[in-house]
UniProtKB/TrEMBL annotation:
Organism in which the protein naturally occurs: Callipepla squamata (Scaled quail)
Name by which UniProt lists this protein: Copper transport protein
Family under the similarity heading: Belongs to the copper transporter (Ctr) (TC 1.A.56) family. SLC31A subfamily.
Entry's Gene Ontology cellular component terms: late endosome membrane
GO MF, one annotated term: copper ion transmembrane transporter activity
Keywords: Copper, Copper transport, Ion transport, Membrane, Transmembrane, Transmembrane helix, Transport
Region Disordered: start-end pairs: 66-87
Record's bilayer topology term: Multi-pass membrane protein
A Pfam family this chain is assigned to: Ctr
Localisation: Late endosome membrane; Membrane
Positions with biased composition (Basic and acidic residues): 77-87
PANTHER family in the cross-refs: PROTEIN SLC31A2, SOLUTE CARRIER FAMILY 31 COPPER TRANSPORTERS
Chain segments annotated as transmembrane: 20-43, 106-123, 129-151
Organism superkingdom: Eukaryota
Length: 157
């Protein structure tokens, strides 16, 4: 096995059954790796979008209180039962929204880690074409996905 980067159309990529023996096979393999790199960038930006939505879903007045619980010095409405009940309901709703977003972010993180390590192992084949596929896919993914994140977070007037 090579321990330096090389240009070749013959390699075994990730698994024994992914054995490349032709320029066409190499081209298809580089395309698959490129698409995995784009997916990595999409998932990374998806995590940022979920975080952004989570911060918008939990009102600032409830963010610490809802997520961490009420403080001992929590000043209510002088003991009015109705306002306390609505405050508790709002707090529970904020906790539920936060938890759903947290689960979504966790799942996206797991996907990002799996795809990222897969790409790392592909690069460790030391095939320069595969490395170029990862770099190109990362650049394309970032170029395409980042503006979508910015546009949705900064709507025009």
């Amino acid at each position: 096995m090579e321990m330096t980067f090389f240009f070749s159309d013959r390699l075994v990529l990730l698994f024994d059954f992914w054995s490349v023996h032709s320029p066409t096979g190499l081209l298809l393999s580089v395309l698959v790796i490129l698409l995995l790199s784009v997916l990595y960038e999409v998932v990374k930006m998806g995590k940022a979008k979920v975080l952004q939505r989570a911060l918008l879903a939990v009102p600032p007045s409830f963010s610490q209180e809802a997520l961490l619980g009420p403080d001992e010095g929590d000043s209510g409405d002088g003991g009015h039962r109705d306002s306390e009940d609505s405050s508790v309901q709002e707090r529970e709703a904020a906790q539920g929204r936060w938890f759903r977003y947290h689960v979504g972010q966790t799942l996206l993180h797991v996907v990002q880690v799996v795809v990222g390590y897969t790409l790392m192992l592909a690069v460790m084949s030391y095939n320069a074409w595969i490395l170029l596929g990862v770099v190109a896919g990362s650049a394309i993914g970032y170029f395409v996905v980042y503006p979508l994140l910015w546009v949705t977070s900064h709507p025009t007037q």
